[in-house]
Design a protein that fits this description.
Elements: H1 3-29, H2 35-58, H3 60-63, H4 66-89, H5 97-121
C-alpha cells in the first residue's frame, strides 16, 4: 500500500492507538467522562480514515486525483484538532469548545470533498 491509501491507513492506525489508550484509561480509572471523545476518536478517526484508505486502495482514479490530496490534508488536521479538543473539553476545559467546533467544520468539509471524489470516480472501470 502506498500513496494516499497509505497516508489514510497510517492516520487511522494513529487514531486506533489513541482510542485504545483512552478506552483503557476509562476502564482502569472507572471514569467514563471521556466516552464522547473516545467515540469520536474511534469513529471519526479510526473507522473513517480506515474506510477512506480502503476506498483509495481499490479506486485508482480517485486515489490519484488532486481531490484525494485535498481530502487528506483537510481530514487529518481537522480530526486531530476536533478529537484533542474534545478530550480537553470533556476534561472540564470549556475553552476547548472553539477547537472542537473548528475541527468539526474542517472534518465536515473533508467529508464533502471525499463525497465529491467518490462520485467523480463512478464510471471508472
Amino acid at each position: 500500500m502506498n500513496g494516499i491509501a497509505r497516508n489514510f491507513m497510517l492516520l487511522a492506525l494513529s487514531f486506533l492507538f489513541l482510542g485504545v489508550v483512552v478506552g483503557l484509561y476509562m476502564a482502569i480509572s472507572q471514569d467514563h467522562a471521556q466516552s464522547t471523545a473516545h467515540a469520536h476518536i474511534m469513529l471519526a478517526g479510526w473507522v473513517t480514515a480506515a474506510l477512506c484508505a480502503l476506498f483509495y486502495r481499490v479506486t485508482e482514479k480517485a486515489a490519484l486525483s488532486r481531490l484525494a490530496q485535498v481530502h487528506f490534508w483537510l481530514q487529518a488536521p481537522s480530526t486531530v484538532v476536533m478529537t484533542v479538543s474534545l478530550l480537553f473539553l470533556y476534561a472540564g476545559h470549556a475553552e476547548a469548545e472553539t477547537g472542537a467546533a473548528v475541527g468539526s467544520v474542517g472534518f465536515a468539509v473533508a467529508v464533502v470533498v471525499f463525497a465529491f471524489n467518490v462520485v467523480l470516480s463512478f464510471g471508472e472501470t
